[in-house]
Every structure is written in structure tokens, then in C-alpha cells.
Amino acid sequence: MHKILDTITRGRMLTVTVRSRKKTHFEGTAAALSSKNTRGPFDVLPRHIHFISLIQDGITVRTREGGDKHIQFPRGVMKVKDDKVEIYIGTEEKK
User: Fold this and answer.
1) How wide is the angle at C-alpha 81 spanned by C-alphas 88 and 9, nearest 5°?
2) Could you tell me the residue range of the domain that residue 76 belongs to?
3) What's the pLDDT score for residue 3?
4) 95 in any annotated domain
5) What is the pLDDT of residue 10?
6) d(CA 33, CA 16)
7) pTM beyond 0.85, yes or no
8) Residue 18 belongs to some domain of the structure
9) Which residues of the chain have pLDDT under 50?
10) Which of 2, 11, 39, 85 has the lowest CB atom count within 10 Å?
């Protein structure tokens, strides 16, 4: 799988940050990232178009070596721009 990703992305990587108000949950690089919004599952690869979405049910970060890191959370906001992915979690309204 990672050979296919390298061919598609030409070796480029995403910089990914997952934050809540209190801490940074993940900061690192990824070959790809998967998540889900109200329209269904989707992937983000390097060179992705600028994109903002409400996401749900966490993310899966794919490393260049082919491993997966799952980060679970109920909802968040994802912003993708210039190979940089910022995800803000814990944004739901407090009751």
C-alpha cells in the first residue's frame, strides 16, 4: 500500500495536529489520513484541495511505513491547507 501512496503523492507528507482546548493529542507527519463526515468516509492525501469539514468518529493516520494510528473522538473540525491538517476536537457545546 505505501508504494501506491508514494506514487500518488510523490513522497510528500502531511503535517497533522490534533488539539483540544487542554492539550495536543497528536502532532506528526502522515502519508494519508482517513475520517468520516455526514456524507461518509473520506481520505486526505498530500496535495489535497483546501478543505474544511465537521468530522465524526475519530481519524486514522497512515504513516509512510504503512502503519495506522487511530485517534478516537466523537466530533471535531478539520482544516486542510497546503499539506497541513489541523483538527480541533472537543468543540461540542457544553450543556
Assistant:
1) 115
2) 2-89
3) 59
4) no
5) 66
6) 9
7) no
8) yes
9) 1
10) 39
